[in-house]
Specification:
With 600 residues, this protein is mainly β. It contains three helices and 44 strands. The strands form eleven sheets. It has a five-stranded mixed sheet, with no helix packed on it.
Length: 600
């Protein structure tokens, strides 16, 4: 349906409010320069995450119906390479499953790379990431999700991950179309055990009249809405409180009765009062914002001007601080052929907070097929970009150029050690002058899409921060007071200082990193660090143990980080066959090795 709000209404609204901020400008990036070559096939959302944990966010561009293929775009410093075809078990599962919904990328086994849960019309799948090849381990984990009885579609809608039992790994809550019961898989390492009944989720999934859409309570995510330190559950219009590992439906108690036919929803502190508020998109031209007032929710849709915006073609909800002014905005992918995307800027002026639709001013002007979107800073410049799948355009990358008045920012890549490796369920609070900002780490945040899980803060014109307070999922707390702004920092749980993601600081131990890209063609980079000057050798072997080439031959190297490229040739200069290879680093008497895959 054509968006009902008209340009004249927008101008009147801006004038009435005395609109107080610059509007960020987006440009449509040249796909070919990014390695995103056209795929003119039907898409249905996407997921962004740093799959190989190399510091650059990657993209899972998932197919919709039919015997089509998805793409896995690996990001090598702003240039993408599709490695989907390297995972034949994943390809087969999607081809046989008809529709694919909500791929979620999480490190369920805490091995430092991100694995994949996705579902189809008929089954739920778990794939382990083995060197960027996704291997089907569904049966091995005891996951069951077949079609019961005469129900034709019992399809997976989405999963939401959290360390429910505080044992240091991630557990998965799963919602399915036509299934009145949620599935809640406790991760026991080598088995997933359904604990939905024992935590109070039996029969709690409300079924809708449209069995192929899965709205109502299938829109699930974990959020500590009462800020008591444990994860609570948001499920569409239902709200559950975590009472000593039992989920209690408190929707009536807190006045939380938005709307049953929900497309997308999310939680964020829209009014900057220090707690999480609820935003929902509904069918029937309905969008609402519910303000959290000490655990009681008030509908603020009219007060914020959100009722002036109505559009029934919404295909995503993406919440982020796109202009880095310290409050979070909303982007909607619009799936119709008559209207442009929607972009609601969160503005505060004259004591009033409002959402103002400024898409045409922000550079959004294309119409056509657009089904879902994910937020990621693909070029790691601190301005959050948007990836949007599209049948008409192959894909759309909205590159964020920022507002005219440049605002400052800070980004975090959190790594759990005692807690789960992805650090999901972490509450992060930033203080800068009179600014207080909160974030809660989640995967995924809503149906059909997964935004990159880095923690991003815009801080406006503040020139420094006072502190970052990190409350880790296992209960530990860390405070950092000296983080440099306008850069990303890698924060490792319980380490006394932050480690910048792009740091070249002196290493304190020998480390051999995973090559990138991997799999690769024609070249890949091998990186390592050494804590002091040593003789170094680096050799490539095939799986039979035969030496292919020596890249470094007993060379004295200084302490620090080192990188070398291999172009897939042997010692005679011939291209090696497609397959897996071993690269071995020897530093003095110490030796370590890793696997990599070459593709012709």
């Amino acid at each position: 349906m054509k968006r009902l709000i008209l340009t004249a209404h927008i101008i009147l609204w801006l004038t009435t409010l005395g609109f107080s901020q610059d509007i960020p400008l987006f440009e449509v990036a040249d796909n070919s320069s990014l390695g995103l070559f056209p795929v003119f096939l039907d898409r249905w959302g996407c997921s962004a995450s740093d799959i190989d944990r190399n510091g650059w966010p990657d993209i899972y561009n998932n197919k919709w119906r039919g015997r089509l293929e998805s793409q896995i775009y690996m990001n090598n410093e702003g240039y993408f390479t599709d490695i989907y075809g390297n995972s034949p078990q994943l390809v087969a599962a999607e081809l046989d499953g008809n529709a694919t919904r909500t791929p979620v990328l999480v490190d369920f086994d805490n091995d430092g790379d991100r694995d994949l849960m996705l579902g189809t019309d008929y089954n739920l799948f778990m794939f382990r990431n083995d060197n960027n090849v996704f291997v089907d381990i569904t049966d091995a984990l005891g996951i069951e999700s077949g079609v019961p009885g005469f129900v034709s579609i019992y399809g997976y809608e989405m999963s939401a991950w959290i360390d429910w039992d505080r044992d240091g790994d991630l557990d998965a809550l799963v919602a399915q179309t036509n299934n009145p019961d949620f599935i809640f898989y406790r991760n026991d390492g080598d088995q997933f055990v359904d604990i939905a009944d024992e935590v109070g989720l039996a029969g709690q999934n409300e079924l809708g009249s449209d069995g192929d859409r899965g709205y109502n309570t299938c829109r699930i995510q974990w959020i500590d809405w009462d800020l008591d330190g444990d994860p609570d559950l948001s499920a569409g219009w239902k709200l559950f409180r975590n009472d000593d590992n039992h989920l209690t439906d408190v929707s009536d108690e807190v006045g939380f009765l938005p709307y049953h036919k929900i497309r997308f929803c999310d939680w964020f502190d829209y009014d900057l009062d220090g707690d999480f508020d609820f935003f929902m998109q509904g069918y029937d031209l309905r969008d609402e914002i519910w303000q959290n007032n000490g655990g009681v929710f008030t509908n603020m849709t009219q007060e914020t001007g959100l009722d002036l915006f109505v559009d029934n073609g919404q295909a995503s909800l993406n919440v982020a601080d796109f202009d880095n002014d310290a409050d979070e905005d909303c982007f909607f992918s619009i799936n119709d052929h008559e209207d442009i995307e929607a972009f609601l800027l969160n503005d505060y002026n004259g004591g009033m907070r409002s959402f103002v639709e400024v898409a045409s001013w922000a550079g959004f002007g294309l119409v056509g097929d657009r089904k879902g979107a994910a937020v990621l800073d693909y070029d790691m410049d601190g301005l959050l970009d948007i990836f949007c799948p599209s049948l008409d355009y192959g894909s759309l990358v909205y590159h964020n150029l920022g507002p005219v008045e440049v605002n400052n920012w800070l980004g975090l890549d959190l790594w759990g050690t005692k807690s789960n490796k992805d650090a999901l369920g972490t509450l992060v609070t930033l203080y800068a002058g009179d600014i207080k900002l909160i974030r809660y780490t989640r995967a995924a945040r809503t149906w059909k899409v997964q935004d990159n899980p880095y923690v991003n803060f815009g801080i406006g014109q503040a020139t420094s921060i006072d502190s970052i307070v990190i409350n880790w999922p296992m209960g530990d707390k860390q405070v950092f007071t000296d983080l440099e702004i306008n850069k990303y920092h890698k924060i490792i749980e319980l380490e006394p200082t932050a480690v910048d993601a792009q740091s070249t600081a002196m290493p304190d131990k020998i480390a051999l990193f995973q090559n990138y890209p991997n799999p690769f063609n024609p070249t890949t980079a091998i990186q390592y660090n050494i804590p002091r000057a040593e003789n170094v050798s680096l050799k490539i072997y095939n799986l039979q143990g035969e030496e292919i080439i020596t890249l470094i031959a007993d060379e004295l190297q200084p302490e620090g980080f080192h990188s070398i490229s291999w172009n897939g040739t042997d010692k005679m200069g011939h291209i090696v066959p497609t397959g897996m290879y071993i690269y071995q680093l020897r530093v003095g008497d110490y030796s370590t090795m890793k696997k990599m895959t070459f593709i012709k």
